[in-house]
Structure formats: structure tokens, C-alpha cells
């Protein structure tokens, strides 16, 4: 079987600019850790299973809304900042095209390109205003003005994934079980699986990524359980 070079294959890189993967991963992990920690805290305080469900459900709804709104605002603000910088660069190209071309050539020379070749390419780019704008923005800002993440994609993926993550440790209670250990165990399995799934996108070892997330969640749950046990209405795990 012939090994086709990656450069000759379409989509040989993952989509890293769509704006959905980071908020989806962050939302799922945050939902899991937040509700595992909440359930551990109130459960450690000795409240009733009904109160645990109420707390976990409130945490799920409030957290999902907060995550969705936060991601939308964050990504939209970043996009607006990029748009403002692009507009600034457009004005500079219109007012001082020669200086901008020299700046572009200097940047390429600093990377090792011969001065004559860098100047020649910069002048060729300058002849196409829209392409010149894209090249200058990429070189100076490190972003692609035509490929910005969607705030709606970030908000929706974060909202959905937080909700799913936060629901996992609540499932045993919703199914009629009343054991806090069982809920925390299910949450731990969810953390490990979420970490293992993330490894699919990052090419880390799946077990290493899963154990990392499990450890972080266990630290959060342990801290809140101890606090709940110290200041709660009762003691012990149901």
C-alpha cells in the first residue's frame, strides 16, 4: 500500500479553528467536576438524597447557562477585537502601502528569507489589496480574518456538553439509588471516559488522559466532601 504524503491528502489536519472543540471539552469537564464536587459537598454534609438531587439539578442548570453565555461573550468579544485590528491594518495599508510592504519584507527577512526575494514577494502581495490585508493580518496578529470561531458554536457546544457532564453523577439518584459512593463512582467513570475521549483529538495516551481527569475530579470532590462533613447537618455517606 502506497503511503500518500499528508500534504497531498485533503483534511489531513483536524479543524482547530471552528470554535467548538475547546468549549465542548471544557464544558463537559467542568460539568462533571462541578456536579461531582457539589454532590460530594452536600452529601458529605449529610443532607437527604432529595436535597442532593435538588443541588445537583440547580448546579446543572445554572452552570450550563453560565457556560453558554460566557463562551458566547468571550468568543464574540475576541472576534470583535480581531475585526477592529483588521480594520486598523486596512487603514494602514491604504495610507502607507510602501511602509507596510517594507514591514512585511522585514518580517520575512527575519525568518531567513533573502532580502531581494522578500521584497519581491511583498511587492507582489501589495498589488492585491485584499490578499495583502489577509497576509499582513496573519503575519502581525497570527490569525486568519476569514476563519474566526463562531460564538454560537462555542456557546451551544459548551451548554450541551456541560449539561451532559453535570448529569452523569446525578444519574444514580435519578434512577432511584441513594448511595453517595455510587454517584461519585459513576462520576469518576464519566471523568475517566471524558479524558479518554479527549485523547482522540490530542493524540495522548487514552489511559493517561483519563487518569489525569479522574485525579483532578477526585481532588475537587475530596475537598468539597471534607468541607461538607465539617460544616454539614450530619455525617457519613448514605
UniProtKB/TrEMBL annotation:
Localization annotation: Endomembrane system
Primary subcellular site in the record, as a coarse category: membrane
Membrane topology (UniProt): Multi-pass membrane protein
UniProt keyword annotation of Transmembrane present: yes
Membrane-traversing stretches: 152-174, 180-202, 214-237
Record keywords: Membrane, Transmembrane, Transmembrane helix
Claim: Aminoacyl-tRNA synthetase is one of the keywords in the record: no
Pfam families per UniProt: VIT1 (PF01988)
Listed name of the protein: VIT1/CCC1 transporter family protein
Amino acid at each position: 500500500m502506497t503511503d500518500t504524503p499528508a500534504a497531498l491528502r485533503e483534511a489531513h489536519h483536524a479543524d482547530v479553528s471552528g470554535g467548538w472543540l475547546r468549549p465542548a471539552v471544557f464544558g463537559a469537564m467542568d460539568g462533571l467536576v462541578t456536579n461531582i464536587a457539589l454532590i460530594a459537598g452536600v452529601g458529605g454534609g449529610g443532607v437527604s438524597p432529595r436535597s442532593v438531587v435538588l443541588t445537583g439539578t440547580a448546579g446543572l442548570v445554572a452552570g450550563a447557562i453560565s457556560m453558554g453565555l460566557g463562551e458566547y461573550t468571550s468568543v464574540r468579544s475576541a472576534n470583535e477585537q480581531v475585526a477592529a485590528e483588521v480594520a486598523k491594518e486596512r487603514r494602514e495599508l491604504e495610507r502607507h502601502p510602501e511602509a507596510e510592504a517594507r514591514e512585511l519584507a522585514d518580517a520575512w527577512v527575519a525568518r531567513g528569507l533573502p532580502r531581494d526575494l522578500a521584497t519581491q514577494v511583498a511587492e507582489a502581495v501589495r498589488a492585491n489589496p485584499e490578499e495583502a490585508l489577509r497576509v499582513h493580518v496573519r503575519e502581525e496578529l497570527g490569525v486568519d480574518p476569514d476563519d474566526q470561531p463562531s460564538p454560537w458554536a462555542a456557546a451551544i457546544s459548551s451548554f450541551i456538553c456541560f449539561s451532559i457532564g453535570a448529569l452523569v453523577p446525578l444519574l444514580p439518584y435519578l434512577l432511584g439509588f441513594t448511595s453517595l459512593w455510587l454517584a461519585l463512582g459513576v462520576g469518576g467513570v464519566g471523568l475517566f471516559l471524558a479524558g479518554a475521549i479527549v485523547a482522540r483529538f490530542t493524540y495522548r495516551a487514552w489511559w493517561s488522559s483519563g487518569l489525569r481527569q479522574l485525579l483532578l475530579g477526585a481532588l475537587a470532590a475530596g475537598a468539597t466532601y471534607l468541607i461538607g462533613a465539617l460544616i454539614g447537618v450530619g455525617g457519613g455517606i448514605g
